[in-house]
Amino acid sequence: DNEGPAISNATLVTCDFFTGGILQFKVIASVLPPRDIFIVYVDGEEAAQLVNVNEWTEFPLGLSPGAHRIDFSYQYNTFGVSPLPPNRAIREGAVWIDDVSLKPFGSK
Fold first, then answer.
1. Which residues, 6 or more positions from 63, have their beta carbon under 8 angstroms from its beta carbon?
2. Cβ distance 40 to 61 under 8 Å?
3. Burial of 13 (0-12, 13-18, 19+ CB in 10 A)
């Protein structure tokens, strides 16, 4: 297992007129470091790390008014470990994202 680092991103961008609110999404992040990890970035800054999430879990993230870039980032072997330790049975090595929404502050 001498696979090098790999990254796969999905990106959401809000416009300048975004009034602020909650970015909400459901996620399964069946990942375990050092093999892989799932990180959410807001404007290039790490906002969350999710690992070993093996059931659909709702995740809220507050966003201030204005334009933002949100990167959902699956990262494989970013530490360059070689060889990688044995895979654990609970790890699928994948991330699923669903039901992504932006809700104004104070809404349900």
1. 14, 18, 20, 21, 22, 23, 42, 70, 102
2. yes
3. exposed
How far apart CA 35 and CA 3 sit, in angstroms, is: 10
pTM (global) more than 0.70: yes
Rounded to 5°, the CA angle 70-39-37 comes to 155
Q: How many CB atoms within 10 Å of residue 55?
A: 8
Instruction: Give the pLDDT band (50/70/90) at residue 104.
Output: confident
Two structure tokens written together for 73: 């980032």
